[in-house]
Specification:
globular; mainly beta; five-stranded antiparallel sheet; nine-stranded antiparallel sheet
């Protein structure tokens, strides 16, 4: 596979991150005449912005990238002093992505702006308690396109949950390729971890490169505590699916339900 581009979720540390955090009173990159606050107000109007902080209660009128069921209908309490902005190539054009968690209720937004800072699209992207751009926030999926990667997560004393969203841009709007769930847990005699790797590469068949998602699951065992029942043996496995472009559907389609099945299996361990 030529021109292979790798983006690692959770495990990867070698892929550089181009996202930067900006205070609301700072200028937008490449637009010294416009503050980040002015840009953010296009996305979430009606806020009070003073001393570099945006506060207030708003009825956020934005669709959800995954499902409208994630919209509570309740007002959103906003309390923030910075947002994340990064450049993205979409449909052959340079664009700006703006990402922000709005407060403490799990609401997060992703917005797309053109070169003139016109708002092209904005969606909610929170599906769990903590939402962030991926450690490697962009994945090249074509010679003129990059996809955005976001993670939603929470954890407790012995379990960790990560919901990864892979988002592209088509016709100036965000399109969800898929959401991929990974789950890890442990006790005093075992540890079982899942980690996700995303990769895309030019297959010579078109401008929309196939995207491969692979989950590595590893179970290790220890003797830290007594166990009356036999302990399941250690193992490792790879579970993957490839998303290929469908011209008739105008989007990516998975060639397998393996990752969905893995998520269902993981849910039995909650």
């Amino acid at each position: 596979m030529r021109r292979l581009v790798l983006a690692f979720i959770i495990l990867a540390t070698t892929v550089p991150c181009y996202a930067q955090t900006f205070g609301l009173d700072e200028p937008v990159p490449g637009h010294p005449e416009t503050t980040v606050a002015a840009l953010f107000e296009k996305l979430v109007p009606g806020l009070v912005i003073e001393d570099g902080m945006a506060t207030g209660e708003v009825d956020l009128d934005l669709p959800h990238i995954v499902d409208q069921d994630y919209l509570t209908g309740a007002p959103t309490q906003v309390n923030l002093g910075h947002v994340t902005i990064l450049a993205i190539e979409a449909e052959g054009a340079g664009r700006l992505l703006l990402f922000s968690e709005l407060g403490d209720d799990g609401t997060a937004v992703l917005a797309l702006f053109d070169d003139d800072l016109a708002l092209l699209d904005a969606v909610q992207v929170g599906t769990d308690r903590f939402t962030a751009l991926g450690e490697a926030p962009l994945l090249r999926v074509g010679p003129q396109d990059q996809a955005a990667i976001l993670t939603n997560s929470h954890w407790n004393s012995n379990q960790g949950y990560v919901d990864t969203l892979l988002v592209t841009v088509r016709d100036g709007k965000f399109r969800l390729v898929d959401r991929i769930f990974t789950f890890s847990d442990h006790s005093c005699n075992y540890e079982r971890r899942q980690s996700l790797k995303l990769e895309a590469g030019d297959d010579g068949l078109g401008s929309h490169w196939p995207i491969r998602a692979t989950v590595l699951e590893i179970r290790t065992v220890s003797n830290e505590c007594e166990q009356s029942e036999p302990v399941d043996p250690p193992f490792s496995r790879l579970v993957s699916a490839t998303y290929r472009w469908s011209a008739s559907l105008g989007g990516y389609v998975a060639d397998s339900g393996a990752l969905v099945q893995l998520a269902e299996q993981s849910s039995e361990r909650f």
